[in-house]
Amino acid sequence: MKKLLQVDFDFTGPFGEEMSTLLMDLAQSINNEPGMIWKIWTENPKEQLGGGIYLFENEAYAQAYLEMHSARLKEMGVEKIRGHIFDINLPLSTINHAPMTEVK
Q1: Res 97: pLDDT
Q2: Cα–Cα distance between 53 and 4 in angstroms, integer?
Q3: Alpha-carbon distance 67 to 71, whole Å?
Q4: What are the residue ranges of helices labelled H in the chain?
Q5: How far from 55 is each of 3, 31, 40, 77, CA to CA, in Å?
Q6: Hey, how many other C-beta atoms are within 10 angstroms of the C-beta on 4?
Q7: Which residues of 61-100 are buried (b: 16+ CB within 10 A; e: fewer)?
Q8: Per-residue confidence (pLDDT) for residue 40, from 0 to 100
Q9: Is 74:83 a contact under the CB 8 Å cutoff?
Q10: Residue 45: CB partners within 8 Å, gap ≥ 6?
Q11: pLDDT at position 99
Q12: What is the pLDDT of residue 104?
């Protein structure tokens, strides 16, 4: 069953276009993570938060990625990492126009 992973953490930047430029290689490498279907990058400069929403093939892949990503962030000096794995309610998500073709 597909799983959604939500991760956020305290982040002082860079944000926006500068973040896009500096993290391009990281973004490309994430496509090679086992079981990863897609990622939406999230940022909130006002509240100094970074993170992402991911769709994985199953919970084992999501959990393994969360553990690896948390370790990588800690190596970068990030201390407060919040990660949650969710089931997806497909009928309700479809009503609200979620891009769920990858979930079936």
Answers
A1: 87
A2: 7
A3: 6
A4: 16-22, 24-30, 59-75, 90-95
A5: 6, 11, 9, 26
A6: 17
A7: bbeebbeebbeebeeeeeeebebebeeeeeeeeeeeeeee
A8: 96
A9: no
A10: 13, 15, 16
A11: 78
A12: 56
pLDDT score, position 93:
87
Give me 89's structure tokens. Answer: 């309610």
Tokens in use for 8? 């956020």
> Tens-of-pLDDT digits for all 104 residues of the chain?
899 999 999 999 999 999 999 999 999 999 999 999 999 999 999 999 999 999 999 999 999 999 999 999 999 889 899 999 999 998 898 888 887 655 55
Domains of the chain, with CATH numbers? 3-102 (3.30.70.100)
Spatial distance between the Cα atoms of 74 and 9, rounded to a whole number of angstroms: 10
Instruction: Answer for the pair 2, 57: CB distance below 8 angstroms, yes or no.
Output: yes
- Judge whether 66 and 54 are in contact, CB under 8 Å: no
